[in-house]
Amino acid sequence: MKKLLFIAWGVVSLLFISVKSQAQATDGYEYKSAIGGRFGVANGVTFKTFLQGQNALDVILNFRSNSKSSTFKLVGLYEIHNDFEGAPGLRWYYGAGAGIGTYKNKETDNSGAAFSIDGVLGLDYKIDGAPINLSLDWKPEMRFAPDNTGLDFAGFGLSIRFAF
């Protein structure tokens, strides 16, 4: 678990440094990258960067726990953003990706690697003139883990990010 956390932190740090060095100043509703927190069924850190045009990469490092299990996971999502006519700063997006992490069943004390195939559908809003980005999305997943393989449709979350 400590190795996975160290590797995940390294990946997020490298992404942040490389994108920060390439970031261009933007005005108004546009932003190149954003980093912040994701809150919902799973809580964690999110980093979104636009690759080209409307295509973005969202990297999420999150933790989820309930009475039966806990999961620590790194998720990468490829997203395609689309503008809303007449609503500056507001976009809707969809995409897909995958996740890797660790899983622990609290009832049986079994644990192991956790893998997932993830989808995403959401709204993204950049506040005009402020370095704040908000995203509200639904992230269903197909999980592959010991004692916990199946579909999960409960992945709603709110991301609050600092945009640069």
From TrEMBL:
Top-level taxon of the source organism: Bacteria
Keyword Signal: yes
Keywords: Signal
Signal peptide positions (record): 1-25
Name of protein: Outer membrane protein beta-barrel domain-containing protein
